[in-house]
What does this fold into?
Amino acid sequence: MFETMVEMILDAQHPLSTGLTADSRLIQAYQGTRPAVTPVWFMRQAGRSLPEYRELRVGTRMLDVCLDPELASEISLQPVRRHNVDAGIFFSDIVVPLKLVGVDVSIVAGKGPVLGKAVRSSADVDELTSLDPALLETALAPISAAVALAVSQLGSTPLIGFAGAPFTLAAYLVEGGPSKDHIHARTLMHAEPEAWAKLMAWTADVTGRFLRAQVLAGASAAQLFDSWAGALSLADYAASVAPASAAAIAHVRDLTYSVAESDRNVPIVHFGVGTGELLKEMHNIGADVVGVDYRVPLDEANRRLGGAVPVQGNVDPALLNAPWPVLEAHVRDVLERGRSAPSHVLNLGHGVPPDTDPDVLTRLVSLVHDVSAAE
Ligand code: 1CP
It folds into this structure.
């Protein structure tokens, strides 16, 4: 599928095209070359653990903030200024493109995304998919503006764009909100396979457009979050989910830039939680890098992936609140195991817990840089 795709070269002003971010540690590692110092960033580094974020959020609604280019850009920059991380991640949410295409969704504090109406039947799927994803061509303007603003201030630090994978978004759409086992979504998959396929194809289009808009506006890499794919068997994942994830990624897979007269693809990372059994399939959808949660050690993840795939991860977020010597020993172990892969970007095995002391994150960044530079 990918061989026949027509390439599209990024704009000459894009930070990968100008060379501003193309040689950064993050992009080198994502392209499979091990840089002298291991790059590090944290999922959910922007947001609740930072006092400057909580201050800025007083009296605002999450989705309003996501659609305000000044605020979304400022919040994206906060952790980069504070922690000396090797990348920014764009501040937004996986449900933003659903909101922009016309879905009744809000983000409830302390809970997460909540839908006005759960999508439970084939008639519900027909109603949802009558919303035209092409509306996003113009509706995504505030997202493009926020990315451009953040990128203009980040200089040589790359910004990572992201989107939710179709299954994780479908899990919210079908359940109507956060859920532990995503049982209604998994029932629909088997009870109404045609409606399921239609729902997944529509969701892939919507989320793929969100991701593409961020890369075109200046993001130097893209991460697809399939946070809840760990609820699936390998067989269900391969048959009923992976094709839609590949379709979502196809929205950015054609984007290229040139370095020293050779064409490179914008790197794509794919991450899931509890997906140790799915790692190989998750790579096969067309990802360059696989994000690993804290359950599978990186040397074992590298073995499962066949030894040629850059990995990202996988410090256990629970240890951020443990005594420093315990955390330090764990981080050194993660770095050591990461050396088995072609390249490694250090991250957490899932997002930063809201009660994390931000100074611990800053100290962890220095540790990763110092330990990896000394090797
Ligand atoms: O009131 C608040 O402060 C809202 C909390 C919050 C924040 C800060 C939510 C609600 N989303 C976000 C931002 C966000 N969401 C980011 C950017 C920040 C960063 O990473 O630095 C990103 C990448 C996301 C992505 C996201 N949203 C995912 C995938 C990543 C993951 O953590 O697994 C998922 C599953 C969501 C849904 C969501 N949005 C918000 C919450 C609390 C949740 C999870 C709810 C649940 O448990 O189902």
Q: What stands out?
A: The chain has a mean pLDDT of 97. Residues 43-48, 62, 89, 91, 93-94, 107, 109, 112-113, 162, 168, 178, 225, 227, 351 surround coproporphyrinogen I (CB under 6 Å).
